[in-house]
Amino acid sequence: MIHQSISVLLIEDDPEDVSMIREMLSGVEHFRFELQCADRLSVGLERLSEGGIDVILLDLLLPDCSGLETLIKVHANSPELPIVVLTGLGDVELAFEGVMKGAQDYLLKNQLESHLLARTMRYAVERKRVERALRESEERFRAIFETAQDFIFIKDRDFKYTQVNPAMERLFDLPASELIGRTDDDLFGKEAGAHIREMDSRVLGGEIVEEEHTKPVKGIPLTFHIIKTPIHNSAGEIIGLCGIARDITERTHAEETLRKSEERFRVLVEKSVEATFLLNFDSEFVFWNHAAEELMGLTSPPTGSIRLSDIVTAESLEVAKANIKQAAETGTTQLRPYEMTVRRFEETILTLEVFAGLVEYDGRPHILGTARDITERKRAEEELRKKHEELERFNKLAVGRELRMIELKKEVNALSQELGREGRYEISEGNAEKEEG
């Protein structure tokens, strides 16, 4: 079963050597080698320009070029391809020098056999792939190291800086040459240096350390978020550490200012006689002050959280949810006042007037609300409404009776006139009346 195919370009002018190599490669199991040949360097370079080659077998002695110059030209033309030099017994030193100039390996023609040839080319291809990957990785690291705004550094086991990036140079206003070889005592002073050395010792012991630490830089205290990790050699031994630090001084100051502001706000809210509460968009109470606890019966449950549905009636819950939905969809910072009916301790029904608005809390939008008890006001308004309705009914009855009396008097006057008598009652336009004697 063939697992892999490798395309080989053999640059060799000796037909017998070409035939020998072709025969060797055809007998290799598990790998297929696609052999292409060129008997001149110029022909080989032309073929390389077309691409599709994985490895080059190169004889250094060709009709149109010989010696190390042959290798140098091929390597310059195709630096990404592995080159295996073919040489005779008398040219070992030349072949070895070729390896120093960029060849992956060399083979003596008189010692060639199929497995050695195949293994050498496979290893050459794999080493070149690893070298390429390592170089690309180093280039990426170098790009990050050079352009990062964070401070990147490497220290040895003696806690001395061995590499620093340009951001470190800007931080201390010193070139890398003046930072390399220094310790943290030199840069930050003995007190900060002692703490840093303690953390570095943990890293050199195998830990990955992350911390926030304030230390003086050119006399100014700066706060850094720092991550440090051990560096190992090929034997797995820790030979130093790499660190990345970010200046978070402004962020720390802003957080402290915000914390103090929130603390002042919390004190004011706690001492306020106005019931104040904070709801998330899942209708869960996040915060409430003492006045809200007294008014609405809010107490922290043993487990879980208090939801709006735990204290309000179904009708009020729908109104509240509609207001929360409106705030979420429109970003309205101030909602219209609305009434909410709550069950206080599942006994007393209270009517509250709620004023609410959208605020940012813990990085997410919440509803901040205040509530006042208007139960008595609503009861007084209801009593007033009932009295008003009663007065309306009484007034309608009184007016109706007065109109009927006027009609009856008109009828009596009419009958009197029919009998030839003078009308008994005098009826004025203002519905006033006077009985004649």
Q: Give the domain tally.
A: 4
Taking pLDDT < 50 over at least 5 consecutive residues as the criterion, the unreliable ranges are 431-437
Rg for CA atoms = 48 Å
> Which CATH-level-2 architecture of the largest domain?
3-Layer(aba) Sandwich
CATH C-level class of the largest domain is Alpha Beta
Percent strand: 25-35%
**Helix coverage percent of residues?**
40-55%
Q: For the residues shown, what is the average pLDDT?
A: 86
Biggest sheet: strands, sense, closure?
5 strands, parallel
Identify the CATH homologous superfamily of the largest domain.
Response regulator
Shape: elongated
Figure out the total of helices: 13
The largest beta-sheet arranges its strands as 2-1-3-6-7
The number of E-state strands comes to 19
CATH level-3 fold name of the largest domain: Rossmann fold
- The span between the termini is 142 Å
Instruction: Return the structural class.
Output: alpha+beta
Annotate the secondary structure layout.
Layout lengths: L3 E8 L3 H12 L4 E8 L2 H9 L5 E5 L1 E2 L2 E2 L1 H10 L5 E5 L4 H9 L4 E4 L5 H34 L3 E6 L4 E4 L1 H7 L3 H4 L4 H5 L1 H15 L4 E9 L2 E13 L5 E10 L1 H23 L3 E5 L5 E4 L1 H7 L17 H17 L7 E7 L3 E14 L2 E10 L1 H44 L6 E3 L5 E3 L2
Parallel strand pairs: 1-2, 1-3, 3-6, 6-7
Antiparallel strand pairs: 4-5, 8-9, 8-12, 10-11, 11-12, 13-14, 13-17, 15-16, 16-17, 18-19
